[in-house]
Amino acid sequence: MKQKYPAKLLFSVSMAIFGTIGVFTRLISVSSSEIALYRAVLAAIVIALFLIFSKKNIFKGLKNKTLLLLFLSGAAMGFNWILLFEAYNYTSITAATLSYYFAPTIVLLSSPFIMKEKLNKTKVMCFVISTIGLGMVIGGGGGGKGSDDIKGIMLGLGAAFLYATVILINKKIQNIDGIGRTFMQFIAAIIVLSPYVAFTSGFNILSLDDIGWVSLLILGILHTGITYSVYFSSLPHLKGSEISLLSYIDPLTAMIVSALILAEPTNILQITGGVFILGSTLFSEIKNNKQ
Description:
globular
């Protein structure tokens, strides 16, 4: 019991930190693809140091199929970041985050076809409610700094599809722990994003001002490298239902940051839609864990 409470605290803190990502990405004046690349590079360095000092051998027992799946999931994760960061540029952090949290619903709907899992009445009901919630978020607009809230929400939804892809691929990955898996995915993201950035926006990191540099270092080192390590270290000590419940600290933090720090307006339709999306997914996950 003593071990679980620190795990709950660490997991909760990591979720709260994830919820502040949108604020820092807005302070970095380079393209979303560059931010995603530098985030992966900084995080990979942090986790590499962790693996070295902990003397973990993540390559033992790895098969070619596992390496391929790690590469595909890492590539999807990298482009998922790009779309999410772009979403922050067009709509509010609340709207972008709620759109992004449609990912579990996409996984739920895809599981019968990809994972051969049964789609029962509860899952169908949750999908319908979550979809109605997404419609409310879209209908309520974003109220963010951008001029095209619908585009921002669609980018958030695109990020959700890619994140769902990462989740589904990870379900097929075996023989590697969470931190080792994440490190390999960061390496894959770097391999894929480097040429993409080179042929699109180019490398403009030297144009960053002091605030941009600090924000980038915080995003890469704290939000990704350190927080991912804390996140995966705490997972084995928590029940599935606890993970499901505590995961919602992320979007709730994002909504609080959006409203109180950035003063982005949020209407009742959007809030109701968020409750539908998060509530239906939470209900589905908790019921699955009980079964």
